């Protein structure tokens, strides 16, 4: 996601043509989750425009279509997979990872299917897998089976940390909506590869979001010191301040690792007199 109604005129310029929105977002953050690709494979020309709006070092983590991961459950989906790979080809090195978000019912007995699917994928991409079946987090044998399936293709296990979100009852409409939709995932902070990917869900209260990510600041600092190149995605239920929070997280990591490169300078926008643009 690189657009949000509440960002218009505050974080991103307004008005802004559709083919300019990603370029402005890329002035705030240097990575994005490609969640829309889960619902429909984009036109190749559309993807080419994404490449034109971003630098080669920008990171896209693109979710495979639901027809592949959910409807077909990684079987008999060659045509859909080929169409998707063809569509995203214009991104070139910007495709940081192709992301398989598997349904909650995809459990340990399905791991052989995942292993076969991963072995057949093109080797010119990196892959990341997000599982939501509780056994992978509570049963060491199930976790080991999954890790053994990921290892031959150097695929990463993507944690979705919702522990801060579910720590106390919701207090806003957006939180109440997310309360019924988001998975209650146990915490996992291990990395399998040199490019770990983390998805973190905070609260609509920025203070609580920041409190909840403190463990991740230390984890990410440790990964960077080990020579890894992590990607951190920060969400809140309403996502109104997500780019601001992402930059704040980066600032906290950089405070402990001053050698870490800064994020890009945002493209200037005219703030509303009633709502000045602030970082915090």
From TrEMBL:
The lineage of its organism: Bacteria, Bacillati, Actinomycetota, Actinomycetes, Micromonosporales. Residues 258-280 are annotated as: Disordered. Coiled coil: none annotated. Transmembrane segments: none annotated. This is DUF72 domain-containing protein. Residues 261-274 have a biased composition (Pro residues).
